[in-house]
Specification:
The structure holds two protein chains of two kinds. By secondary structure, chain A is an alpha+beta fold. Helix content of chain A is 34%, strand content 25%. In chain B, helix 1 runs parallel beside helix 2. The chains are: A alpha+beta, B alpha+beta.
């Protein structure tokens, strides 16, 4: 991206001045190098989003931002229903509530290392992953309805995991307002045996260890200690969520015409939040959000089962679960007033500061744990939300490293088998369901996650707590 | 003779179908999409599904066609390799597709396609050939 089109506000904030039909300015959080590497499409998409009705304060892009559909991936925008604000498929994506959760095993790196292959192979056998992955859990239609309305709470009731897990899941594992009637029959048909499955693409299940602690006091409150082993799950709402996206892409395309909403890119199709179409889409999104929470909850149960086969006494306590493809009604201070706005986070993570009432009791006064997934060959990070982040970015940060190379080019550049050997020589044991899928996910196809996290930390959007190093990874 | 190819998109993948007619361009794009999921050469066309799509314009019809194929394949537990459009107008198409039950051992599963999107969407004619393209979410 050309720097000259932006106005620097300090080292880590770049403004796209309001012009033309933009209702608010654009803002990109990143340092110079990341901006220079960012594709021009991010500029275009941040600008397009800034033109949407009812947008508040600014149209944002995070340091991992890249070309998305309508919104950039790494895009954040808040809309006020009282000012004609809209809800858009482009701001949520097709994998609704795709997200991450991290479990603390309490095990030491040195006791896990000799049994790493055992653990990864066991988890590979237990957690269904890959193209069209389906598990053993078949839900009756009333159970599906339970999942869509009650999310992780419902599956905990069925015996998948502990009640305590819910406290450490965003929204306590369930958003209200999910009406299964807003979800199509096709979406329900596609659900079949998919709860508790990982999927493919960039989804993963990773065994990691705490390599570095930046903030010992927060780390200890999160239950994180140097050289302790964690397990992170990255996945979303599977075919049901994809179908919700697909169904409403068409419905909102019609709604955009009906309400005469000027959109700059077709993928930004949207409807006023308070319109019948907007309400129905939001309701379907809430169902898919709940499905994703339930999915990660069931996988958690499977992971514990696998872990206990190798380490019978190990516990896997949930640190936190957070989505990064969502839209949520939240209170934020805008122009000195507390307002309820619909925050779209497309490839961006919520990061509430220490004073937010939504936080689980043990994290009150500390801040929300923020999980930033890196790549299978580099690192991931745990951060903590700040008050500054609420002011500067509707309490949002990046979601990962962000791609810098297309899948097509990555596949031409690397071979899955060779990548496995290379990572093995670094002590990272990988199991994948597809060799070409692995090549597409090569660590070098991503931006440097450390640079991305530094930008978030230095911009004050969240603070670094620990760095996690991968030692084993399962890719779908 | 139709053909398909891919174009680069940072997060996902762009697909393009080329053909002597718009119908053929749509069919080729469907091959491009399913070849991302599995090796279409390994899929025997042993089961047939009828397809009927409607949309507000031809661009949306193209995305609707691709998304309906993903949905029908998934619901029926199939992977698809043959695509035929018998009739197509600006807003509607009729056709059928063929494939077989998904077999991870034989079909070389690669990656799931979540949806066809309106991103990078274009339909047109160049040097006497029709093309249809869009980005698919992976």
């Amino acid at each position: 991206m050309e720097l000259k089109k932006l106005i620097a506000e300090g080292e880590y904030e770049w403004v796209i001045p309001r012009q033309g039909e933009m209702k608010v300015p654009g803002k990109i959080y990143a340092h110079r190098k990341l901006i220079e590497e960012m594709d021009e499409k991010v500029y275009e998409q941040v600008t397009n989003v800034a033109c949407l009705p009812g947008i508040q304060k600014f149209s944002l892009a995070m340091p991992d931002a890249h070309w998305g559909y309508g919104f950039p991936i790494g895009g954040v925008a808040a809309f006020d229903p009282d000012q004609g604000g809209i809800i858009s498929v482009g701001g949520v994506g097709f994998d609704v509530n795709c997200g991450v959760r991290t479990l603390c095993t309490g095990l030491d790196l040195e006791e896990v290392r000799p049994k790493l292959k055992d653990i990864v192979d066991t988890l590979f056998g237990i957690v269904p992953a890959g193209v069209g992955s389906r598990g053993k859990i078949s839900l009756s239609s009333s159970q599906v309805e339970g999942v869509l309305t009650k999310g992780a709470q419902w599956v905990v009731g069925l015996g998948y995991g502990e009640k305590e897990d819910l406290e450490f899941t965003e929204e306590r594992g369930m958003v209200p307002g999910g009406d299964p009637g807003a979800v199509s029959q096709k979406a329900l048909q596609r659900e079949k045996r998919q709860v508790g499955t990982l999927g493919s693409g960039n989804h993963y299940l990773e065994v990691q260890w705490v390599e570095e602690v930046y903030d010992p006091s927060t780390a200890s409150k999160f239950g994180l200690e140097k050289n302790k082993v964690t397990i992170t799950i990255h996945c979303g709402s599977r075919a049901l969520g994809h179908q919700v996206g697909t169904d409403y892409l068409r419905i909102l395309a019609e709604a955009s015409r009906k309400y005469g909403i000027p959109i700059k890119e077709r993928e930004l199709v949207c409807a006023p939040i308070d319109s019948p179409e907007g309400k129905r889409y939001f309701s379907a999104v809430n169902c898919a959000i709940n499905y994703a929470f339930a999915n990660r909850q069931v996988i958690t149960h499977l992971v514990r089962e696998g872990l206990n086969r190798v380490f019978p006494r190990a516990e896997a306590k949930l640190l936190y679960d957070v989505g990064h493809n969502t839209c949520k009604l939240e209170n934020h201070r805008i122009d000195g007033q507390e307002r309820r706005v619909l925050v779209h986070r497309k490839g961006a993570t919520r990061a509430f500061g220490p004073q937010r009432g939504e936080l689980p009791q043990p994290y009150q006064g500390i801040g929300q744990p923020v999980i930033i997934g890196g790549t299978m060959g580099t690192s991931s990070y745990i951060l903590v939300g700040t008050e500054t982040g609420e002011e500067k970015a509707f309490a949002s940060v990046c979601h990962g490293a962000g791609r810098r190379m297309s899948r097509k080019r990555a596949m031409k550049t690397w071979r899955g088998e060779r990548l496995l050997d290379e990572l093995k020589s670094k002590g990272i044991y990988i199991r994948g369901h597809s060799m070409s899928g692995l090549a597409e996910e090569a660590p070098m196809a991503y931006k440097d996650v450390t640079e991305v996290v530094e930008a978030i930390h230095n911009a004050g959007l969240a603070r670094k707590v620990v760095r996690l190093k991968p030692m084993g990874c399962i890719k779908g | 003779m139709g053909r398909f190819e891919y174009f680069e998109h940072l997060a996902d993948m762009g697909i393009v179908g080329w053909g002597a007619s718009l119908a053929e361009a749509f069919e080729e794009a469907a091959k491009a999409m399913f070849n991302l999921i599995i090796d279409i050469d390994q899929v025997k066309p042993s089961q047939r599904l009828p397809i009927h799509c409607r949309a507000e314009d031809t661009e949306e019809l193209f995305v609707e066609w691709l998304n309906q194929l993903l949905t029908e394949a998934d619901i029926n537990g199939l992977v698809l390799s043959r695509f035929r459009i018998d009739r197509i107008t600006e807003k509607e198409l009729h056709g059928w597709v063929e494939g077989e039950r998904f077999d991870p051992q034989r079909h070389n599963p690669k990656v799931e396609v979540k949806a066809a999107t309106y991103s990078g969407l274009a339909i047109g004619e160049r040097d006497g050939e029709f093309f249809a393209r869009c980005v698919v979410d992976i």
